[in-house]
């Protein structure tokens, strides 16, 4: 049984205690299940619309219902779990409002409370991975790795397919979270030149990642690709790179009294998972091949950006909860396993270390390949077939997620990137990290 992340035996110094306090014993998931309802009846009108969301979207009456809401304040939100649920609610309602018509809405009418809640959680006012997954699940027990015991609290479509899609990401986060303390201990042991601890940790990480890949393979059990592509994916779209869908300026967040701001934000994406970036940091995966996908300062108005240009991986950290972003920043300052692996070999233990590192990068590359396979089945293939749920020749699932490049059109992810080329590049970077470890010269190793 792995040590809990908040276990004092793995915390050590005050600095480490601060680092561990930024996550929970479940990794990047909450310590306990998200709230199923806001306790104060003041927010009941939000809750009622969320309850009816699949029907309102199907009947295309969502904008009338939300448009008639009174503007609520955030003063009656108390605990962090309440703030998280309120954020999740407004993410669903906002995306339902924007994408729930024949054409997208250029105005977010729930902007005022949404911006306040987003600022509190240090998240952007858009449907993020956190809202759709981390704050949106229930479990039959305390073990969040049990996919069969998980379900989404809320969905856009009202289908089991969508619930399964969200729940699978929760199970991935829970299972992956178990190796977080293991890898932190390993990175901390580098200063002691402790080959054995790092090797064992990498071996455990490899096993975990292979289990995560097996979890991805379970997507097809209860999630149909056509349901995902046509009933769910349109609502995951953000407002960045969506000119083809009718949002050339993004969406105007109306704060009332003539105040507001146009914002272009990425949609919900697994690329916003802190766990995946944690694995990248641990293994020293360098994604410089994706540096051409940059965003200019100011594209995320609600988030402070201190650097002029951000790579995709740097930018999406601003789509993670503030504590998780700070955690990753702290991990990035720790001793690097990759540097340790590449240091001069001094013993047979170093050869075992290099092999364990290669195994881990290979497993992580295979995980990314499995993700590409899933994207092909759930996005690429359905995009080439007629919509079985609508006779309309054009729907927002295709219009909002196709990047027009003249004669050649590329599918984009809900996060706003060129989909397959981006994923292939990330996979190749991951495999490549392991290949940089040169075979050891036996004569250089001391007996």
From TrEMBL:
UniProt cross-references to Gene3D superfamilies, sorted A to Z: 1.20.58.480
GO term, biological process aspect, one: L-tryptophan catabolic process to kynurenine
Keyword vocabulary terms for this entry: Heme, Iron, Metal-binding
Cellular component terms per the entry's GO annotation: cytoplasm
GO terms, molecular function: heme binding; indoleamine 2,3-dioxygenase activity; metal ion binding
One Pfam family recorded for the sequence: IDO
Family matches, as InterPro entries: Indolamine_dOase, Trp/Indoleamine_2_3_dOase-like
Binding site for heme b: 371
Cited PROSITE patterns: IDO_1
Family: Belongs to the indoleamine 2,3-dioxygenase family.
Protein name per the record: Indoleamine 2,3-dioxygenase
